Amino acid sequence: MSLGPYRAKRDATRTPEPVPEGHGPEPAVDHTGDEQTGRGDAFVVQEHHATALHWDVRLERDGVLVSWAVPKGLPLDPATNHLAKQTEDHPLEYATFGGDIPRGEYGGGHVAVWDSGTYELEKWQEREVKVVLHGSRVDGRYVLFRTRRDDWMVHRMGRPPEGWLPLPQGLSPMRPTEGPVPADSDAWAYEVAWGGAALLVAVEGGRLTLAGAGPVAAFPELRPMGLQLGSRQVLLDADLVVLDDAGHPDRTRLAERLATPKPGRALLRGAPVQLLVRDLLHVEGRSLLAAPYDQRRAALEALELQGPCWQVPPVFTGAGAAVDAAARAQGLPAVVATRRTSAYRPGEVSPDRVRSS
Ligand code: MN
What we know:
The chain is mainly beta and 357 residues long.
């Protein structure tokens, strides 16, 4: 174990990261016990918003932090292995580091401790490391195994955390019934219907997947929403729109975006999409499909999703006529009302969600 590669990549005058002195003896390597290095069983996971978002998983070993960069973070689902790239050993002081590495420096971007704790060692070999992590966010048995050179995979052994469910696959949006919107009633929540492309958006490990609107590469402006969510796992119901200068949905330009898998700079500038998020179907291992709309909506608002190309437009309870009048005055297509006690029924036409026709 050596911190040479760690030092070689960093200039102590330019980065706020701890850079131990480069001369003198190498850090305490104590094969006889842990007297010089504490208990020797610390682990830390740092969320690192570098050029690409990743989570750095570090295990204390022989006086250093042996490190892997994991693009999607530690998996909670034993059915899904995640890639892990072994990186240079880090000094023990790094375990509490958080801050901003300046752009242009090695690993430039924000670093924050995501979880830390201790680990029980079950096996440490050249190609396989097996540990039980005891943190506040992650608790469980993991194996890291080398596939080639610095490429490893990380696998959760046993079960997912108690009650944790993976994101459901293959769902499609619930569709509204067309008809007269129920008159003002406290039983309903009203919002503007934007008339865009309805889709479901899954986010996991900071990465987006779109169901119903083509590959996510077609909408690069939405990618930062994944970064904003970080490690939070969600499934969202949303409307994709292109707004014109007056704030009205522009169906022609939306159609152009939907038909363009690799938009050029001119199209991205001329027809940026907006993701209008209206419902939350799954969050942090918990399905909300059967939960009443009010509860889903409260959980959605708690996510505080807000960015240049994504937002959660307001809903109004018991005020259908006012929302309808406001929408029409602004030339917006219609109003949608959702029964506040209703469940979400993927792929179905729901009598509990009504769109004015
Ligand atoms: Mn990193």
